[in-house]
Amino acid sequence: MDHSFPVAARAQAAGQRTDGCLALEDYGALGDGRSVALSGADGSIDWWCVPNLDSPPLFDRLLDPVEGGRFSVTPEEPFTVERRYLPDSNVLETLFTTASGQARVTESMNSDTAGRLPWAELARRVEGVRGQVGFRVEMRPGRRASAASPYHSCIGKHHVFHVERVLGLLLHSDGFKPDWSDEAVHGHFTVRAGQREILAIVAGMDEPLVVPPIAEIDRRIDTSDEEWRTWARLVGHKGQRRAEFVRSALALKLLLFSPSGAIAAAATTSLPEGIGGGKNYDYRYAWVRDAGYTIKAFLAAGAQAEAKAAFSWLLERLRETGPRVCYSLFGDEVPPLREIDVPGYRGSSPVVVGNQARHQHQHGIYGDIFETASRFVSCGNILDSRSAETLSRLADQCADRWRQKDAGLWELSEAEHYTMSKVSCWQALARAVELADDGQLPTTCRDRWARERDRIESWINSNCWSEVKRAFVLHPGSEKLDASLALAVRFGFDGRDRLALTLDAIDQDLGAGPFHYRYGGVEQDEGCFLACTFWMAEARALLGQKDRAWATLDAATTALGRGVGIFTEMADPVTGAYLGNLPQGLTHLAHIMALNVLEEQQGC
């Protein structure tokens, strides 16, 4: 079975809009290390925040289907579509077929041989393959929920568009003759076999704007493809599923915010966890949990530079502010939650900026940072004395605070003694002791950490096990299960027999089709949480249940093969439709870790 996601599986249906919206699996992601654009299967770029991932969107049709901004290059005739990423690249290729011909669109957020450009450059190459295909073009900047009124002006020979502090150009080759108005650019062109047209947006904020020749932009599409392939060649995974592994690694690379080293949880805000529901969140920030797991995934991929940059950023934030759940991409406090007056994806509201988790406390951050430090050191690296001091202070805090209630990994509104939070505290102190024994941390408090580690283990076994469920439960006094407890196997928590029984109970209570819900009682509000299924596959592999592990992984990746290899946070277990923000880093990194464990055990 091919799991490399070569083309969209639904070639006939891709590109059709429901309620003005494309299916989320019909989007591919483009990025340059600073921002991410989402390109739909009908040729419309419906999401792009300029210049940064967390900037206000220049294009926001994703959340405002009628009035939102977009940059569409779409065949004038009815069409079918096949899509893929170029091999080992984040350059996206779409093949449009109409009654009169066939044309290929190649899209890139351009970089150059020296790395990321000091401006945003979104390039689209349209080539005729056979016959002829006419395209209509619309470039319409978004109004930012009526907070901005885009306009255009002529500066020299250039038509320039303005959206608040963003300045941009629509550049193009000679075959396209645009009609400009304040609100949009319209036009059309035709490509015949062997012909090509180039369209590109060059934009910046509060800075002079470079006007590159169109031939240079065209060349940089190929340069960007080569730079992605050069990076992918360094990914140190040699298994049979290497193409699948590299695709998820490339998706994670899109979320690494190069100006600071932060790792965004996802590139979007407010894509619903259930259509029409209210579970809509802004994930364009850096969670300690997601950053820690992503660093481990980069290390598993052999991407040492990315792992080091992200780990250094994370340690600096913890040193400055102490343990927080999440940060802005520049390391500041996440802004308070604010609703935006737009319709939302398929009418799902609210649309929000900011995140309410910014002031929560989650014990999981202790485990996440120490597991990251442990993995960093196990790859042959060394902690500096300042980082060691920061980690020692965090271990002391964990030893003091583990008996308190918290919001849990799932950021729940009711504070409880969540089992997974206690496991995370056990994990933190277990790794702290190991780091101290290895000479990486001061040993002054080593014995105290070991005693508290053992107390936590005893508390979990005494309070969090249910004989009724034959499983560890969400928290003491509850009979609900929590799929994140599959991670306890990776963390090395003792009681493997109980963990094996817990996995069986999770499959029974939380399994749905090829996927799993996060915890009991959410089935009516949201889809299945994709990372949980990959965690289950990894856990079964670590427990020696290889056949069940492969079956879990294969069922999930087959169901997710509807798109081009970009995963969301959740999916509908019945229809397979993608749900939630995308690309979702936690999903991709869980996929990487599952593949890494399974193929290592298989000897690939």
Automatic annotation (TrEMBL):
Keyword Hydrolase: yes
SUPFAM superfamilies per record: Six-hairpin glycosidases
Keyword Hydrolase: yes
Pfam families xref list: Glyco_hydro_15 (PF00723), TREH_N (PF19291)
Keywords (A to Z) from UniProt: Hydrolase
Start and end residues of each Trehalase-like N-terminal domain: 24-98
GO MF, one annotated term: hydrolase activity
Domain named GH15-like: residues: 242-541
Top-level division of the source organism's lineage: Bacteria
InterPro entries: 6-hairpin_glycosidase_sf, 6hp_glycosidase-like_sf, GH15-like, Trehalase-like_N
Protein's name according to its UniProt entry: Glycoside hydrolase family 15 protein
Organism of derivation: Teichococcus globiformis
